[in-house]
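Table S4 entry, IclR family transcriptional regulator.
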Amino acid sequence: MTAETSQTLDRGLRVLKLLADTDHGLTVTELSHKLGVNRTVVYRLLATLEQHALVRRDLGGRARVGLGVLRLGRQVHPLVREAALPALRSLAEDIGATAHLTLVDGAEALAVAVVEPTWTDYHVAYRAGFRHPLDRGAAGRAILAARQQPVDGPGYTLTHGELEAGASGAAAPLLGVTGVEGSVGVVMLADAVPERVGPRVLDAAREVAEALR
């Protein structure tokens, strides 16, 4: 800790991170051990976080992340979208296909940014806010593939006709971005994805990941 930082705020943020990393919650005693502070400090931290709905405690006394975190999370999408747009525009213009940034939202893939090419006669209409299951479409499948360690294959995913008849997709996961799970991809009207598209999508995903770090 430095003179410019707040020890209490630091501990509160560490509590949130610890709770976010567990599905079953943590007791005051467990948090006390993990933080290296006494139980009284943990009680005060939890009480403050509960007032802001960032933490909730169940009947058994286990602390979990609260619904207030969701309200904060909704504000992340515009920031992520803004950071990704330059790489998406370049990708869409280069490939001549609709480019998109997709993030995980529960069990679904959610398109949070979409850029359509300006010079093509026709392209797939793909709108921000479009949702689909993670196990369908290149965007979701790329995310699922990234959950496997290590990632096998070329680093990108290709699909055809899974979300729209006659449309093919290519997507690559965002890697190395703390707190963000998603992918960058393109969708096009084609029977197959041209050979150069996969590596180009992979490069775009790296550009977006770098912009978000």
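The longest strand covers residues 98-105.
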